[in-house]
Amino acid sequence: MLPTYSSMGNLKFKWLWGPQIFHSLQLRTPNPSATASRAGRILPCLEATVPERTPPAPVLTSGLRAASPADHARRHRSIHPPQLLGFISSAGFQPAEAPHPSAAAARAVARAADFSFDFVPRPTSLNHWHPCDVRDGRVLVDCRRFTEDDDRKERLSLDLAVCDPLSRRYRLLPPITDDLLASVELQNQDMFNSCASFIPSGDSEDETSFRVMCWMHSKTKVVVFLFSSGSDHWTVGTSANWDDVGLHEEVDSLGSCQCVYGCFYWKVNYTNKLLKLDMNTMELSTYDLPPDHEDGDIVIVESGESKVAMFSQLGAGTPVRSYNLLQNGTEKSHEWHMKSTITLPDQYTSEFYINGLAEAYIFLAGTQKEQDAVHSAFFSLEIKSLKIERVSRKTFPFRYALPYFGYPPCM
User: Which residue intervals define the domain F-box protein AT5G49610-like beta-propeller in the entry (predicted)?
Assistant: First the structure.
């Protein structure tokens, strides 16, 4: 038994299909009959793993409109949070293991789903899709590649797709056009780095819709682009020169982002700075981090009552520290107050953070201290209670992993 414990002027995308096909079949599944067969096998198994619950009471409305399926779904999620099923990385899926309560459902998902993402058409035979974010059971995958343009200049291409590993359905996102890049005075050759993330849907009426944010930066500026599945195109969210947000030195890279109370946060790698994007105003700003966080890992979280908190680790094997962000009158007047120190169970030493947070948890990987230890392990850390629970072994070598919760709605 396992013990339980109390981060493009001329961007070109080369696709392997015609644009007319893409627009007519934005959602595809490679074999409908096979998908139906798989669904028929997995659904009884998943249903058997979910405890019998009292049906939710009817939703009362003001008489302006009848309660929609989305209303019922949101109410059900508020009562029954989605299950943590495991972790995904470029190496595949690591399901939760007994005695974790979702182990049975996780095994069923591992048998039925395709976390290789090979059902999504690849830009070239040499490139593969890599998961970069997960939300509501859907996975955002990217494929980064460098090509040469007609002038033999190196160009960065970022291909993106949203997919459902259970049904094998997917949606390819259109490229960010040259004109859109030019509108923010950016050229592909200037691009230093780029990545993408889901934007939380909030109380969206249509659960099948989604939004994606893509951020790109050069040596002098950062740009955020926004995509909506409803409009099927990219728009400029915001852009700013690094000097304008108080980052006067060259920015090497941005860490993984977390969305907290409607704001995105990135650690500026190799600095003591935190970059913030307010999604309501689309304004960018920076915070100072506590001393000695230049090489540390951080996760920004919601601590309740609209207060921001942070978990950090200054190096592998060091304790995890919990901080509260204390406001002193204005947003720019603040300080981090260390609240507690968290360690893994005695036989483990903490390696690093799993990327990001989800459903009121952050995630850690631990290595067994004994020299002959065979397995590392994944742990969940509940933000409010600080309860640590072992979820599964860690069988793939990658540092980058994403927690996988719940089941995706029909795309």
Answer: 132-346
Average pLDDT, the chain: 77
**Contact (CB, 8 A) for 379 and 394:** no
Question: Tokens standing for 40?
Answer: 């028929």
Calculate helix-pair angle for 103-112, 32-49, nearest 10 degrees.
170
Q: Hey, is 38 helix, strand or coil?
A: helix
- Inter-residue contact 371 to 315 (CB < 8 Å): no
**pLDDT digits 0-9 by tens, 12-49:** 333 333 333 233 334 444 554 454 444 444 444 443 34
Q: Are 258 and 356 in contact (CB under 8 A)?
A: yes
Cα–Cα distance for residue pair 383/299, rounded to 1 Å: 11
Q: What is the pLDDT of residues 156-181, one digit of tens each?
A: 778 999 999 999 999 999 998 888 98
Residue 386 CA to residue 368 CA, distance in Å, equals: 21
Q: CA-CA distance, 196 to 141, in Å (whole number)?
A: 9
Phi, psi at 391, each rounded to 5°: -100, -45
**Which amino acid, one-letter code, is at 293?**
H
Give me the DSSP letters along 284-322: EEEEEPPTT-TT-EEEEEE-STT-EEEEEESSTTSPEEE
Residue with tokens 């644009």: 19
Q: How large is the average pLDDT for residues 42-69?
A: 43
Convert the pLDDT of each residue in 292-337 to its tens digit: 888 888 999 988 878 899 999 887 778 889 999 876 555 555 789 9
Q: How far is CA 161 from CA 34, 259, 382, in A?
A: 22, 20, 30
The structure tokens listed for 200 are 């939380």
SS3 content of the chain, % helix, strand, coil (to 5): 15, 40, 45
Spatial contact of 299 and 362, defined as CB atoms under 8 Å apart: yes
Output b/e per residue, 44-66; b: 16+ Cβ within 10 A: eebeebeeeeeeeeeeeeeeeee
Beta-carbon contacts of 152 under 8 Å, excluding residues fewer than 6 positions away, are: none
| Chain segment 394-408, per-residue pLDDT in tens | 887 766 789 999 877
Q: Locate tokens 């990545």: which residue?
A: 195
CB count within 10 Å of CB 410 equals 9
H/E run at residue 22: helix 19-24
* Nearest residue to 83 via CA among 42, 35, 50, 121: 50
CA angle 206, 262, 383 (to 5 degrees): 105
- Which of 310, 281, 280, 278 minimizes the C-alpha distance to 296? 310
